[in-house]
Amino acid sequence: MISTKQIKSSFYSRPRKERGRCTVHILMRLEIAQPLILLMVYFLQVFLVGKDFGALVVYLVAVLHPTKVSGVVTRGIPFLRPGPNAVQSHMCPKGFYVTRWKEPGRAEADFGRFDVKTVIKNIYILFSSSEVPAATRDDEEIMDLVDPSTPLPPWLSEEDLAAYASLYENSGFRYPLQVPYRTMQTDLGIPDPKVTAPSLLIMGEKDYVLKFPGMEDYMRSGQVKHFVPNLDIVFLEEGNHFIQEMLPQQVNELIVKFLNNHMN
Question: In what order do the strands lie in the sheet with 2-3?
Fold first, then answer.
């Protein structure tokens, strides 16, 4: 089983100059997927697990290499068709965090006012909420939405925070902002993408993503199964966007059960 979190953690911990540069936006998405594709050369079949925008990567690999993928498990984000309507930002508030972070330089300036650890802490606090992060004024930035006195979520330790922050000390935030926020609406030229492998999506009932325009209906009505026909969706009542850290035992049990059901 290959996790995109492992790939991304290894990737982002490297200094910028060691990563190379992609001049084509499509390649920037595929650059993260490339380690998964290379690993599949050595395995007849793989199960892929992705969280948040890592889900977009494993879905893309499953679309492009269906015979290699035995199953897909994602958390926090359903399949989103690559292209301009991946996230309907135009239907969100003007200060929607995705819109703000798509703007070159704006998030970098916002984050640059704080040390790396504080930025990561603020992101965890913001995205643990059931509300979509959005600024209400033009002169208000996303980091300004967090009260500095707000404590860490009870399931996130200071040790965890320090470990996550260390991944970005060398890399900075430029590439994580470029992929996915500034590339996810690029049309990849796949007219009718399909994930044919058995798939499991784990969502928290309190995940703010459910409040994206049309997102909850897209999942609950079954529209998502046009793209992922063999999909099961499990909603965990108390879960938020960081469901795997908040409810690790429940998430792990669901993943293990899925693997047991679909291993040959």
Answer: 2-3, 46-51, 69-75, 199-204, 231-236
